[in-house]
Design goal:
By secondary structure, the protein is α/β, with parallel strands linked by helices. The protein has seven helices and 21 strands. The strands form six sheets. Strands 1, 2, 5, 6, 7, 8 and 20 form a seven-stranded mixed β-sheet that branches. It has a five-stranded parallel β-sheet with strand order 10-17-11-12-13, with helices on one face. The structure holds flavin-adenine dinucleotide (FAD). Flavin-adenine dinucleotide binds at residues 13-19, 36-39, 44-46, 49-50, 55, 57, 89-90, 119-125, 258-260, 290-291, 300-303, 305.
């Protein structure tokens, strides 16, 4: 047995909108939980695919954005102090002899949980990787995919690869960081063509930085990488090698259902069948909510996922509290729920 597995009533796989609301519903029922997501931040599709776009069909919220919704969900679960394990993909799920579920992530974290909530959406969002032979060995030292923090690049010559929002935002942030830190650093944007598919404000910022010379710009594709250089093939076939300290690839992320397909959940067209009373899978104690599940009439909408998460949390009560009939309480009137939410009044 691996050292110190995390012991929990519930493990939620996925920190998309439905996984976050799942954590809220579990919190109201006093079921302890941890949340794991492959991405380095919460939000699933809402942040990854439409962070700044408006969304109009969240009950009681006439308009917000993908990111605004996720911020609200995070604020809502804050009282429960849910431990979040971000940047980790759940790789395996197995049954312990005592009936509990044992899950391991690709970073070696082990959970032993009484119940599992698969809120994996359309799969784990993983960065699109470069396919240059041997490049994998540089990952984490000189090659980075969609890094969240940029302070490690202070004073370094960095090439940012990509033409979307994230690449442009990263390039501009590195330019600002070089200016503010006072440590000379060269920032270069590398893209396959002289045109960007990005927010107009970002494009304008990048064009201005290129014009004033604080951001270099190269059109081409990376075709080689060694301990000191990146080799770029230009559209006319010319090959140039430029020295770099770090290469930051922002080529987008794509969802992969990945290991979930091997967990014996009898997938139907890459989705997990569930009942509609508890949203439980064929594996007792393993629930599936949100975009990842399927049942007659299923609609991939956030509001449907919220309903599923509510009933799945109630479904778990008979496993977590086998000797107790858990009463339904209203957040408006229950003093116990007020205590849990940190809104108790004298
Ligand atoms: C462009 C667009 C616009 C949309 N607009 C609307 C709208 O207006 N209204 C609406 O209701 N819905 C809308 N949707 C659909 C909505 O975004 C989804 O229904 C919702 O995101 C599903 O939430 P989820 O939590 O189930 O999954 P996701 O949001 O997909 O989150 C799943 C999370 O699980 C993680 N994950 C998966 N597998 C693993 C693993 N093995 N280990 C760790 N982490 C894992 C992923 O990294 C991801 O972060 C839209 C979708 C798109 C693409």
């Amino acid at each position: 047995m691996a050292a110190n597995p995390v012991d929990t009533d519930a493990l939620v796989i996925g920190a998309g909108p439905v996984g976050l609301f799942q954590a809220f519903q579990l919190g109201l029922l006093e079921i302890s939980c941890h949340v794991v997501d492959a991405l380095p931040h919460a939000g699933g599709q809402c942040v990854e695919l439409y962070g700044d776009k408006p969304i109009y069909d969240i009950p009681g919220t006439p308009a917000t954005t993908g990111r605004g919704l996720v911020d609200s969900l995070l604020e809502q679960i804050a009282p429960f102090k849910v431990p979040m394990h971000l940047g980790e993909q759940v790789a395996s799920l197995a049954r312990e002899p005592d009936g509990r579920l044992r899950l391991t992530t690709d970073r070696g974290t082990v959970f032993v949980a009484r119940t599992v909530f698969v809120a994996a959406g359309v799969g784990a969002f993983v960065p699109r990787r470069l396919t240059i032979e041997g490049i994998g060995r540089f990952e984490g030292t000189r090659l980075f995919y969609h890094p969240d923090a940029l302070d490690r690049f202070v004073g370094q010559d960095v090439v940012v690869h990509g033409g979307g929002d994230d690449a442009l935002r990263t390039a501009l942030a590195l330019v600002a960081q070089a200016r503010d830190s006072g440590r000379p650093a060269r920032v270069t944007l590398l893209h396959r063509r002289d045109g960007f598919q990005a927010d107009a404000t970002l494009v304008a910022g990048v064009r201005a930085a290129i014009a004033e010379g604080t951001l270099g710009f190269v059109v081409g594709q990376p075709t080689g990488f060694d301990d000191e250089h990146v080799e770029v093939t230009r559209p006319d076939g010319d090959v140039v090698a430029a020295p770099v300290d770090a290469f930051v690839a922002c080529l987008g992320v794509s969802p992969r259902l990945g290991p979930i397909a091997d967990w014996g959940l009898d997938l139907e067209r890459k989705q997990v069948p569930v009942d509609t009373a508890r949203y439980e899978t064929r594996e007792p104690g393993v629930f599936a909510v949100g975009d990842v599940n399927t049942y007659p009439g299923k609609r991939k909408l956030i509001v449907c996922g919220f309903h599923e998460a509510t009933l799945a949390a109630w479904g778990a009560t008979s496993i977590v509290f086998p000797d107790k009939a858990v009463p339904l309480q209203y957040t408006t009137t229950s003093t116990r729920l007020h205590e849990l939410l940190g809104v108790a009044r004298d």
